[in-house]
Design goal:
- Among the domains are: 116 residues, Carbamoyl-phosphate synthetase, large subunit oligomerisation domain (Carbamoyl Phosphate Synthetase, Chain A, domain 4), CATH 1.10.1030.10; 137 residues, Rossmann fold, CATH 3.40.50.20; 124 residues, 3-Layer(aba) Sandwich (Rossmann fold).
- The chain has 26 helices and 22 strands.
- It has a 7-stranded antiparallel sheet with strand order 15-14-11-12-13-16-17, sandwiched between helices. A 6-stranded mixed sheet has the order 1-2-5-4-3-6, with helices on both faces.
- The protein starts with 37 loop residues before the first helix and ends with a helix.
Length: 721
Amino acid sequence: MSGSGGSGAASGSGHEGGSGFAAPAAAKGKAKSKGISESKRRRTQEGSSGKPGEQDAADFDDEELSHRLQKPHHTRLLELAEAFERGWTVDRVHELTRIDPFFLNKLAAISDMGKTIEAHGNISTLPEHSLRELKRVGFSDPQIARRIGCDEFAVRRRRKAAGIVPSVKQIDTLAAEFPAQTNYLYMTYGGDHDDVEPTNAGAVVLGSGAYCIGSSVEFDWCAVSCIRTLRQAGYPAIVVNYNPETVSTDYDESDRLYFEELSLERVLDIYEREQPGGVIVSVGGQIPNNLALPLHKQGVNILGTNPLMIDRAEDRFKFSQLLDDLGVDQPRWKETTRVEEVLTFVEEVGYPVIVRPSYVLSGAAMRVAENEPALRACLEDAVDVSPEYPVVVSKFVLNAKEVEFDAVASHGHVLNYAISEHVENAGVHSGDATLVLPAQKLYVETIRQVKRISQSIAKALNITGPFNIQFISKDNEVKVIECNLRASRTFPFISKTFDFNFISLATKAMVGLPLKPGSFSLVDLDYVGVKAPMFSFTRLQGADPTLGVEMMSTGEVACFGQDLHEAFLKALLSTGFKLPKAGSAVLLSFGDAEKKHLIEAAEVLSNLGFQLYATEGTHGRLAEDGVPSEILYKPSADKKPSAVDALESGKIQLVINDPRAGDRLGTTDGYVIRRTAVDFGVSLITNSKCAVLFANALAKIRSFPIKHVDEYYTLGHLAET
């Protein structure tokens, strides 16, 4: 890795890396944690909803199950299945749900068919015709295995030996008027021949699947960039994805597209059918990444980083051990094997602590606990979403800055990298944080440590392809939080900012093409990029619009500016944030913990002519520092003038509220204020760092030019001349 001149390109630009497969002629050149809840582990494996804190349908008694079936909700289908498993009749379920018996009969038939499997104590005794029919109606190998009490791969071996494999069919895009010659494919057990021949070449690229919090267009951009790079190099690109909203599922993006689920069984079916050179799992987010090790164990050639190394990074316990072996600093940690051991650990390090499950995206079930009841609940939730892997509890470092390192490596050598910083302190999920690139407020020594640590981790894991490392920095001490051996949701942002496609480089590294790292400066960039999150709190009735370690944003925007303040305001406006009009009213409510930062923001806003209102405690703090404000009482005070009344009347145009301020009563009042602001369309800022940056940006920026992205890219060249 280059350590001089602030260059984003590492040394060795002529290096040829990757150990994938030969270029075509046209393109030469741990142990499960016990003592928490073993039943929860088992239920998650057996197909429960998998959401933390959510009870499984099998746990309900008949009375509770009857009650739940009467009301539509997101787990109702699972509860319907449980009712039929208990032998309830279609008529009984119809009376409870009022669902048309036509559909209930279909569901009951599935349940009845599943029960017939249980009569066979061994997969070898299951008749071939029964196995074929089970596959035809949609039973997966794991479902059959669970019913019969064997391993899913025993089912796979049995059906393959019997010649029971899915056929490949083309989706008829011409309504049967003409022969359809499309690359839209699917697999079915209802056919007796294939519509297309195997490719016997190229690479399978696993997409991101359904859009959800934490997995959206950022990963689809990565997948599409990978696909285009493969095709430009002469490799057939075979895409597996089931989301028609994505660009990767456009008819002209790939050589073959399988509209199929991203499951181990189906990916193995496609791999064995197509016989490609390998599978790329690192550009589609967490779902493909979770398949890396299981696919590897079944003999699939995973292109890029070895799946054993992916597991070493994804498994919190193994990764923490690796950091200790490398002598890399990290927050003190403990693997949860017994709750009592965790409590002893917390007595040593003190609260708050953070609970981190393995193999998850968007911080699913990741929680900060500030007391024992909260810690116990966090441990249960973490096991719910990641039952196969250990949970690690770490000391949560307060008031630390979070830094991200996104890079591409080949055989452990970093080729290109980008270092960005969060505006918010650590504790806000990276997907919800406001990201600044290049970093504007990092010490030179901090950057030096980040680069040195990242290179040592890349070498230890022998990384080939994209990866992301998250750090926290406080008082110039740098600690590693986590490492993801896949593209992060930041890769499109850094690629756009530096006008260099990081995923294209990563793809070439993974398949063994000649590599030419980009040459760009991480320091002397004549513009700043800011990525800001977007939220859907207005559509989520009753949700508390606060941020934490589990991701909540449903979108993001990125904007460029000639300095941080311009880029930040542009990004904020692009999310739909409404700037308060000059001289309008601003409501402030915060506690002592954030007093220093928010007093600064209040002073700036007051000097700009905004009329400040504050809840009682905040009003007193402002008065101590000579900042004028008027009192608006909290909801619990039951006094006038009320903060809620002012929000509902449209008097207030901006609310700055620290959600961590105060005791339980204060927090409840804070929730009502925040929720009212969202419900009545009032702009809301809930982070002190963002509040200060916002106030200073208002003071500095009076107007800003709107430029095409290419105008920013040419700024550096103009400066040189």
